[in-house]
Amino acid sequence: MTEKPGPEKVYPGPATKCSPMKKISIGPRTLLYPHPDLIIGTYGPGGRPDAMVAAWGGICSSQPPAVAVSVQKVRQTYENLTSEREFTVSIPSVDYVKEADYFGIVSGRDTDKFAATGLTPVKGDLVNAPYVGEFPVVLECRLLQTVEIGVHTQFIGEILDVKVDESVLGPDGKPDIAKIRPFAYDSMRREYYGFGGVIAKAFSVGKEIEK
Q: What positions does the domain Flavin reductase like occupy (predicted)?
């Protein structure tokens, strides 16, 4: 005799969870949700400020604090990084998605990207590299090491300082992502996405499973 199935279990939360669904392979791709939108600032030949978009990047060490960005050898930024060994990472807000996208469309070899966008190159206090003055968050980095990975070279930089606009600080004095308003990149669809509100408290919501 077949046992009758019990009632479907309903989980708490904003939506009902369902059983694992069938996964369809789409092959090996550079796909990760979400990709960051990082603006890498360097000085090029003759000291001209340059910037490029790097979606292949992120924090890679806590101590020392470090960030890694991957750059193809054909990029002007690759030459700038290997020459100067210092760089900045600027985080744009959604107000500047057009300018940020432009940084990834043209080459610094034949275009003054700052002049074209009307954005302000500001020399870092601790590194010989420019950052975008209008962008709310900036990391100043000094190259620690490089790693060759296929068509990309990964540049690992120690974060010497983080600069944040006062306007995006919360009442607690910490950067407020709701005020920064960063955006992410979908490499599959080649689209930019903004962020919603807080969904849970990190290192806290998971403890509910222990109860």
A: 30-185
